[in-house]
Amino acid sequence: MSFLALILDHWAISLIAFAALFEVSRIIYRLTFHPLAGFPGPKLAGATRFYAIYYDMFLAGHLVKRVALLHEQYGPVVRIMPDELHIKDLDSYYKTYKVGTEFNKDGGYYANPLVKLSLLCILETNEAKKRKDSFNPFFSKAAVRRVEFLCHAKLTQFLNLLQKAAKESTVVDISRAFRCLTADVIMDYAYQKDFGALSSKDFKCDLIDAFDDLTTTGMVGTYFRRTFDVADRVANMLPKSVLAKISPPMLTVVEFQENCRSNIQHLKQNPRSSTSSIPSIFDLLLTPDENKGRSVPPDEALTAEAVLVLAAGMDTTANALRVGTWHVLSDQRVYRKLKEELRNAIPRRDQMVDSAVLENLPYLVPLPLSLARVGVRWADEFH
Questions:
Q1: Tens of pLDDT, residues 176-218
Q2: Range of the domain at 274
Q3: What's the distance, Cα to Cα, between the start and end of the chain in Å?
Q4: Pfam family example for this protein (predicted)?
Q5: Residue 82 falls within a domain, yes or no?
């Protein structure tokens, strides 16, 4: 019997054998000839992504804790996956992420379909810089100060809700509350549109909850990119009635994307001057400086930027507020000193002062300004 006939007669066994041979060969390559083979780390982590998958997916995100232990064992630079290093050493970090770095982003890691074509997913450094430079005027200190009144309005609404909860002895999930605050501020600043998260009963906003529910799905996408991409394409092809039954959180995000596209179309049809006192982030992106090699991103990219602006700004800021507030309230010395300083600077409870005033307060300076104001008002209600 010929070798070919043997394979055809036992095709299933042959397929398994070839798959096993391929996997063994890939492991050998990863541990010996791969560009990262010389970096320290567990051999299993260098051989297969299942090392990281085990800690992230089966141990509920414990990879970050495991990485800290790996640094103690292996040093400042550790190989945690076949194609990935984790860097703790600042010198190595700044060499990798410095301005003008020669390194581009990894396509597999930055290919989230929800923010596809956004700044986050532009892999080439030069192209990413062009998009980033388009955002810079929007996030300058002067630009933010021009619209402080928007932040003050949302902050006043937020503090009034806390005061009402205190009078009614209602327990508030402060993590949810801070996320509603930051989401409203971000979307008001980016779009000049009322997002309405603070108006949600008990700070339960459907879109914020949808982002939470999709976090686990996103973890699957990190390690099983192709499967995740196929599932995303199928989800976008399904009628909303079907998607509502299969994945209500995905439907909520899809509807948010549609709303973003509608807002972008409205801005295109009713352009405002980029020199307006409060231009939206999309006013600027829709009127790029062509002399600097910038162009108007496609609608899909602009929609992705809207999702990215919300996702990137909401949780990061809310977590800082939550953790900082806890520490302020947990240390009576810090609380009393901060409260005394702010009482002198803000004599009336309903008063909102400019950040320029708060930045000159000697004890407050190291603390996020909104955190201090919220923390003290929150403490007043419950102490």
A1: 999 999 999 888 887 777 788 999 988 999 888 888 877 767 6
A2: 138-382
A3: 88
A4: p450
A5: yes
